[in-house]
């Protein structure tokens, strides 16, 4: 494995911020919402147990610091889920499901001081187990989509206003012989017009596909089936991270969930006028198929997407062009998964970009210059087959019935944890010709220094910067390093000679 590390004149930027927020509950969904002036909300559910779930709203300033309503916790009900949240000029609206014998889809509006303006639920949405899945606010208009986790014979597009009134709703019916559930909805830019991606099946566990459609308040404008195929033991297909691009088309992540929880993913771009697929891509590193996250469009018309290599344990950020091909990639050097941005992005009013996972928010720019991101290569895009065919979908207009939903408030203290701490391993590097093998290694790591004709300083460190072994040798030879006593994991070897530094990762089995 021969590595040539060329001159990097610009070291990593340390101006990017990373904040890690502890989660009191065991699990739950999280949303980071942009507000004017760079401020933001974090809206998170905390599932302490099956019968004890809370929704917490944190308000942060532009520097990611908690402000006056940090720590407000909303106790919706003993059996509740929070599925979505959206910012409004004076606060936030979030919604989900009030669980029980009959699932009741709820929505709640909170202002910036933490006061609840209304708490309501829909009482006449048939098909059972309906939940508010997504919320879109456009001026005074408030539109929501639901999904039903029971018979999956329909979903609702609820057309209302930010004052909490909903004059009409559109019930969209699954085609005969098909069940579907909404995974994602995204506005097209026209009033109350959306593209919707639905997880679908025809009753066969090996015949899962996606139903994609454009709808407005009058009905379904067009609808097609995206069948991306499945592989053995990968059956459940979902469409996630749907976004509209600057060219007017849309892109989403297709996810296949296999037996035992294994995942496969790909990115799909399609035409906004018909649903026709423009391209469908999978991404590989060293022959290993990557798990890719949700796309984020950059100012040049390309996209950023996170990626994970479970074999090499690489956490990557990929920059792809409008055709889906890789332009560059960077690797996150920390092994603390709670601090790694996992690929959901948004921009604030100042044009700043953020990536986040459930516990961390990372401030970045479109070159991903943040703490401990280093240049990387070797990721390629591969075209994959797909099938698109039209399907007829009907709809019915109804009048929703809305009732007040009881709630109670409580508050507690809350602490955000840490900023991103650099391992200190990123520095200006000059050309060094070094060969290390094998990788992964069990006992002996071979280091070929035959191209170096001077004294060489060698250091083995872990990804947190702890030094495990140091040595000084003379170049022009191949040496062996005993790593048998190192615990299994990922390490870096640092080779310094002639005012040049080579840093390369290896895996100890």
SSE layout:
Layout: E1 2-5, E2 18-20, E3 30-34, E4 40-49, E5 52-60, E6 72-75, E7 80-88, E8 91-98, E9 104-111, E10 116-122, E11 130-138, E12 141-148, E13 154-161, E14 168-173, E15 179-187, E16 193-201, E17 208-216, E18 219-227, E19 234-244, E20 250-258, E21 263-270, E22 277-285, E23 288-289, E24 291-292, E25 296-297, E26 303-309, E27 314-320, E28 326-332, E29 344-347, E30 353-356, E31 360-364, E32 373-376, E33 379-383, E34 387-390, E35 395-398, E36 402-404, E37 408-411, E38 432-437, E39 444-448, E40 455-462, E41 467-474, E42 478-482, E43 489-497, E44 500-508
Overview of the molecule:
Helix content is 0%, strand content 56%. It is elongated and about 80 Å long. The chain has no helices and 44 strands. With 509 residues, the chain is mainly beta. Among the domains are: 21-174 and 398-414, no CATH class; 432-508, Immunoglobulin-like, CATH 2.60.40.3080.
Features:
mainly beta, Immunoglobulin-like, 509 residues, disordered N terminus
Question: How many strand units?
Answer: 44
Mean pLDDT: 79
- Looking at the structure, what is the overall shape? elongated
Low-confidence segments: 1-15, 423-430
Report the β-strand fraction as a percent range: over 45%
Distance between the termini: 17 Å
Instruction: Count helical runs.
Output: 0
For the CA atoms, what is the radius of gyration? 25 Å
């Amino acid at each position: 494995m021969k590595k040539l590390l060329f001159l990097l004149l610009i070291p990593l930027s340390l101006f990017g911020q990373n904040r890690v927020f502890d989660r009191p509950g065991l699990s739950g969904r999280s949303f980071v919402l942009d507000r004017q002036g760079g401020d933001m909300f974090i809206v998170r559910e905390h599932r302490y147990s099956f019968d004890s779930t809370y929704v917490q709203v944190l308000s942060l300033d532009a520097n990611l610091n908690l402000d006056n309503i940090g720590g407000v916790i909303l106790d919706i009900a003993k059996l509740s889920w929070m599925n979505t949240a959206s910012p409004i000029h004076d606060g936030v609206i979030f919604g989900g499901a009030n669980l029980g014998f009959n699932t009741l889809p709820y929505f709640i509006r909170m202002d910036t001081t933490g006061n609840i303006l209304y708490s309501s639920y829909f009482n006449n949405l048939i098909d059972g187990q309906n939940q508010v899945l997504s919320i879109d606010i456009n001026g005074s208009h408030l539109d929501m989509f639901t999904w039903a986790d029971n018979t999956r014979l329909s979903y609702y597009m609820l057309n209302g206003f930010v004052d909490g009134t909903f004059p009409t709703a559109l019930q969209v019916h699954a085609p005969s012989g098909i069940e579907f559930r909404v995974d994602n909805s995204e506005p097209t830019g026209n009033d109350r017009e959306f593209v919707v991606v639905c997880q679908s099946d025809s009753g066969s566990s090996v015949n899962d596909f996606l139903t994609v459609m454009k709808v407005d308040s009058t009905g379904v404008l067009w609808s097609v089936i995206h069948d991306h195929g499945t592989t053995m033991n990968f059956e459940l297909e979902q469409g996630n991270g749907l976004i509209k691009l600057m060219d007017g088309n849309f892109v989403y992540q297709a996810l296949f969930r296999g037996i035992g929880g294994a995942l496969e993913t790909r990115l799909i771009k399609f035409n906004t006028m018909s649903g026709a697929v423009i391209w469908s891509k999978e991404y590989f590193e060293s022959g290993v198929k990557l798990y890719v996250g949700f796309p984020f469009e950059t100012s040049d018309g390309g996209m950023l997407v996170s990626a994970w290599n479970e074999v090499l344990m690489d956490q990557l950020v990929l920059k792809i062009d409008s055709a889906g091909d890789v332009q560059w990639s960077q690797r996150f050097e920390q092994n603390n998964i709670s601090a790694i941005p996992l690929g959901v992005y948004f921009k604030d009013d100042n044009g700043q970009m953020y990536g986040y996972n459930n516990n961390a928010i990372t401030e970045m720019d479109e070159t991903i210059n943040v703490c401990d991101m280093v240049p990387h290569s070797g990721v390629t895009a591969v075209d994959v087959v797909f099938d698109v065919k039209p399907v007829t979908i009907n709809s019915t207009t109804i009048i929703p019935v809305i009732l007040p939903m009881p709630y109670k408030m409580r508050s507690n203290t809350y602490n955000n944890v840490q900023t991103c701490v650099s391992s200190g391993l990123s520095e200006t590097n000059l050309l060094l010709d070094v060969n290390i093998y094998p990788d992964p290694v069990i006992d002996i790591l071979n280091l070929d220094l035959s191209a170096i004709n001077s004294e060489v300083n060698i250091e083995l460190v872990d990804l947190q910067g702890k030094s495990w072994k140091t040595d000084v040798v003379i170049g022009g030879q191949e040496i062996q390093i005993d790593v048998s006593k190192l615990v299994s994991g990922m390490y870096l070897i640092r080779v310094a000679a002639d005012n040049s530094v080579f840093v390369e990762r290896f895996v100890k089995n």
